[in-house]
Protein 1
Amino acid sequence: RGEFPVVSPQEVDYMDVSPFQTVSVAASLIPFLEHDDANRALMGSNMQRQSVPLLKTEVPLVGTGIEGKVARDSRTLIVSTVNGTVEKVTADEIVVRKELVEREKPTLEELLDFDQTDVLTYKLMKFSRTNQNTMINQRPVIRVGQKVKKGQVLADGCSTSHGELALGKNVLVAFLPWRGYNFEDAIILSERLVKDDIYTSVHIEEFELQVRDMKRGEEELTREIPNVSEEATKDLDENGIIRIGAEVKPGDILVGKVTPKGETEPTPEEKLLKAIFGDKAGDVKDASLKAPPGMHGIVIDTKLFSRKRKDPRAKKLEKKQLEVLENNLRDDEFRLKELRDKKLRFLLKGETSAGIRDVIDGKIVVKAETKFTNKNLEKIKFDHLNPTSPWTKDEEVNEAVRVIFEHYNYKIAEIHDRFEREKSKIQVGDELPPGIVQLAKVYVAKKLKIMIGDKMAGRHGNKGVVSIIVPEQDMPYLPDGTPVDIVLNPLGVPSRMNLGQILETNLGWAAEKLNIKYATPVFD
């Protein structure tokens, strides 16, 4: 209603928990936000969303204190779900052994949980491509033997450092004109930023090639390409796909493909080839996928999708994949059975038997009025017992036994269901658009250094384009001879009214000299 009455604190029902709540997440990452004009703060928060993940990340010297929360809530980090000890750390996975709580008997909830294990494995995402061609790569930040708490960061993602958001770099900035190169918001960079890979990022390009079924015959992926030297195809496998780890230069063959020729008049060279090698050499032409100009990188992954094929190689591969699937199924079944038996022994130990009979041969396994001990529990084959008949004198325990078997059967059905789905996927082949027999994909990672024409921005909406990269010895320097890294135009500050950048620069300088980090919460 537009009324703002003044009341005593006793009458207040709700209040803000934090001054951060008045602004968005992106705006709350801007230090000294209260000294910036709203238009520039809006630009600053929008441009933080567009930042490219850097090769080496660095936590800001001047933050707002919410960087850790933002990084954690963005799900780019891997966080421990339990208290425990780190058993194994590799580039691909982190294994944590759960801290066991000393108890006589586990709770019923723990007994019914078949997903719970003593050892947890966290898989790390390695060199994965985003839709913007940037890279997601998770790196461990803990060591073997280290004790971890629930909620502790185990691995950094992209644009994070030690569990905090790290979008940019801490560099030495000077506000002064320099030979007109920072006219109209242009930015002058020191060569050190290029040389030391300060603003270098890794990008992953995806290339794909389709193999079609054509009227003149089927196209084919192969390394045997007409009129192409052995040197050009040395990195291709038997399917004509480049090997992982190969260096790529412009014009290199990524996927070798031949396509049937139309009925045209043969050239003299083709006539000669036909005369020497017979008919085969001239009836296909090169239709390979080549690296585009300016592409320098390394192949990090290749994929080949095929419809169901009848060739012996495809059958051999299918047989191998099915064997692996069946082995995994047996392992999962064994693990679940062991877990079920362990839970049942926990539950029955110390209880009094109601007379348990083996349903297969009808023999009594444990006589009535006998106490369950470790010795007689070890001998019981639980698969041979009827879970619905009473096992003990205690009805609650009998009900728990029934529920454990129910949960076990549900889990077994779940893994069988998953097995059947995976099996049918292998046997049916990949789903491809009509007319396409195979689809090859090649992923190439390339390192991009900062260059003239790139856009850079601070957190206060102070954006600009790199106009020149200057050798270190020609950059303006401090009284002690230290050359600055970036030169910005001082005229970009007064009319824009984003004075937060000046305050951040001064506090950042102090932070660097004192070797500490500052957090200045918004409106605080």
Protein 2
Amino acid sequence: MKEWIKKAAGFGDFPESEPESEIEEQGKSPDENDNQNPDNADDTPEQTDAPEQQSVEHGRDEPQAEDRLFARLRDRMAKSRLGFVRQMDELFLGKRQIDPELLDELEEILVMADMGVSTVQEIFDEIRLRVSRNQLTEPEALKQALKGAIEDLFDQAEKEAGGISWEPVPYVILVVGVNGVGKTTTIAKLAFQLKQQGKKVMLVAADTFRAAAVEQLEMWGEKTGVPVISHKSGSDPSAVAFDGLEAAKAQGMDVVIVDTAGRLHTQVNLMEELKKIKRVMGRKMKGAPHEVFLVLDATTGQNAISQAKMFCDATDVTGICLTKLDGTAKGGIVASIAHQMKIPIRYIGIGERMEDLRPFDSKEFVDALFQ
């Protein structure tokens, strides 16, 4: 095996620069900080731009609005684009044909971008075959083939899972993740956006483990105008989830988003608690939860894969919300997750604004990355 592949075993350990503006930065949120100190909570609505102060684009089907949104996505992906894409362009500079050395160097660039050894090897098996058949002869054609191969990885995961139907109602989403990934702010942004789309949304504060977690979600609910069902701190989270579904059905809600305690994927007791929450909701409402969103931090690299595997063992994860993409130069982790886990990326976080949680569009993402 090539030496760089051996070195790649530690590719998740490269130092990452912190997001310049992502509100889910480590230490900024009490539920998303290993210190778990509510007195230092910077992620509460009082210390973040309130939803009322933030503009949300309407008429997003209009070309100008779409262009603005794409431009912002491209800007927020600058670190990744200036990382491996720039290296790739420098590699291609002055090259008129594809040779084995170029392919080896390109393969190394992608692995070091946290795309993962197995993901890169699968892509390059096909590329090397096409090169051997003279179907790819120029570097620019190789770049386009690589772009298409990455899109295919996302499309395969999406095809297997299907889209979000938002039916039946209330449509129940259970949100899970470790501490520090931006789980609560992701929930708040998602609730706000769904409300902007005309849906009746309810939040359920099933994180009864951390001090001030309930209060924090209630403050977000007040700021976004979304009702919150909660019990006192220390209550059984399964009971909170049960009552939340009951209230949602009684009040005619369209979507219910259930917050859970941030937990390490190695904490067996808390992972078992997730299973119980899921069972209780299923007894209250057939098919609930309809979605289980796992929130992952893009800056953690391949460690995100380990987290995903452990959470998938505890509960059936149906979608990934990937935060802090504006804070990493290794955007390849997105493709690695889609390929290795076969779970679709549902949302990506690219900044601090409420609209900076974006539904994931594979073509839009790859275009923004490569342009």
Protein 3
Amino acid sequence: MRERGRPTAGDDETTDALASLTIADRQGEEATRRPGRFAGIGAVVARNRLLWIVAVAALVSLVAGLVIGRFAVSPEDAAAGAAPPAPGLITAPVGFGALSTDVTLRGEVAFADPVEVTVDTTTIQGAAVVTGRVPAAGAELAPLSIALEVAGRPVIVLPGELPAYRTLRFGVSGPDVVQFKTAMRSIGLDAGDPTDDEFDEAAAQSVTELYAQAGYAAPAIDDGDAAVRAAEEAVASSTQALAAARKELAAAQAGPSAARAASTRRTGSRSPICRTPSPWPSSPGRSWARSPRRASSARRSTRRSRR
């Protein structure tokens, strides 16, 4: 009989055989399972072949783009990174012509402030009534145009900044006369020298021509103005005659003196030069040449003053 609980030699052999059988079975099962897993992966790849192809193509494109972007250089980048060229002479053809610049300005067009014009009607006989030549609204009044007609007399437009504050008569002077002469010259009429501020004969004659161009008769000159005008003309002619007579007298006086000086030089006489007090203002130490007789009297007076 065998004792219970204690293995025998036969039992050990049986156990080893069972263990070997168990390990062999497990290895067979694992060998059977492995071909099944690889077969499943192959089936998945076969079913999604197009997807895998697209994924591989995208990956290849990404890698190629990174490589090209890293090593490829554009012409602009190459020019920016290149060294600057050596400085050289720059030439350009020279041309002649007019220079012009177009300037565009923005503005607002509007009517200017109205200007009140006062017409002097003191010289008009009778009532000062507007008889015609009334300009239309918006009309432009140029020089020599008629602004209004009062009692048959025209109001003529002339350029100038100074208002006409008085009636210009023969003999008056002032800046308004200068402005009148300048205005007459601007419209082609000769009123005399514009720098002369006196209303003279030429200015009076230009007034007649001004009214003739406007189509009206020149204003009549009253007796007082005519008398003053005649008197001033007489004074002017007398002044000219007096100036001519003085020139002739000076020439006549200069003749004998020149002859006497020439005769003195021929005889070899010398006129003494002295310095004496003079009633006329003179600079200090100024010398005066005298005749022999005057020089001797001056010398005597000087000696007496020294004594």
